[in-house]
Amino acid sequence: MSTELLAPLDLAFWHLESETHPMHLGALAVFDPVPGVTPQDLLELLGARAAAIPRLRMRVRDVLLPVGGAAWFTDKDFDVQRHVRRVVLPGGDFMAEATRLAGELMERPLGRGLPPWQMYLLDSPGDGPFAVLVKLHHALADGMRAVAIGAGIFDQIASAGAGRGAVRRRTPVPPRSWLPGPYEAAGMAMDRLGDVRRALGVGASVVRASRLDLRAGTALTARSSGTRRLATADLDAGAVQRIRRTEGGTANDVLLAVVAGGLRRWMLERGEPLPGADPRALVPVSRRRPGGAATGNRLSAYLLGLPVGEPDPRERLRLVRTGMDRNKTAGPMRGAGAVAVLADQLPALAHRFGAPLAGSAARVLFDILVTSVPLPRSALSLGGCPLRAVYPMAPLARGQSLAVALTTYGGGVQVGLVADGKALPDLDRLARAVREELHDLHALVPTVPAPA
């Protein structure tokens, strides 16, 4: 039976979960139909391709060593039918029904006695579009790894894997004693001292960034109701790139400024006073290296004040660029947002017993999560049905009401907004405000002639 210890950050995500704070990532992939491909065909195809992904056959169990640790075990009783299901939506507006149901399904924690993932085929009567909702526990994968796992359902990735032959297998590792020898024990002790030094450095950055003036009662920070609501927005990737070429910075800078402007519009529309201090965004940064370890979360993050108090859209973008440049100069390993790096340095027992405290501490550092998820640039399909759009979804931290995830596919930027359903019942208005913000920012930017 294959086993693999959970890395410290994976273990943190596993223990941070509660009934009202599920720690899974998600994505709603929307497809156009093709004649002759039935929902039953798609359901069987999803099941077969998911079952062929070795990572999706593994579940978590506690282990004796390290104390407080857990490991991934291949589930000898794995049954893909427990994970892949079909839901027929009522007629009407397909996207409205699909996003409503996806929000409800994202409320439910994944079963901890099974491999922690689910897929739902969402279709409606007739020959209209259909969608696949994917849920993966954050302990199973970070955003980049989730894409690599979830992409295995697409025709292009599945056929490429079949063309390469059998699934790559790891070289068997001979059994070893849990008790290290004297030289190994000395090496482990030195490694732990290095971990402690790194943890102290990162911890000092995190403490310096912590706030005592928590913003109680704002829309972004509210007591959790355990409910979830999803809203989506589609942005023009060409407009984002034109703004970037004119104003400088990165496409991500532009999108962060658009989120800030969308929040400002939305707050003013609902009659909410703008905060005296900019709300803080946690912007995850991948520490995954090409050719490096394929499993486990490899994350750090930047902290960025979203300039919702600034009325000029171009000035908001300049402020975002300046803040992100400052973060990049500090680096993801030393900056104030490197709380995930700190989690990587802590022993398993600290995660098991410190999770409730750590979960409540998120509000001390940030108000909203804004993350970008990379997708393959090539056109994708499922059973020959072309992929139209993918709306990523991020988990909510305890005491926070909104998480924003963005990805680029097919000439567009798709935005997935996940919110506490009771704290933000008007999430669709925020999605509209984000679309309007990009339109207005683009209109203000001088036209740059295309290179000859």
TrEMBL record:
InterPro entries: Acyl_transf_WS/DGAT, O-acyltransferase_WSD1-like, O-acyltransferase_WSD1_C, O-acyltransferase_WSD1_N. The keyword Protein transport does not apply. Residues 6-254 form the O-acyltransferase WSD1-like N-terminal domain. Its EC number is 2.3.1.20. It holds the Pfam family WS_DGAT_C. SUPFAM superfamilies: CoA-dependent acyltransferases. It is an enzyme of class 2 (transferase). This is Diacylglycerol O-acyltransferase. It comes from Streptomyces silvae. It comes from the Bacteria. Keywords: Acyltransferase, Glycerol metabolism, Lipid biosynthesis, Lipid metabolism, Transferase. The keyword Lipid biosynthesis applies.
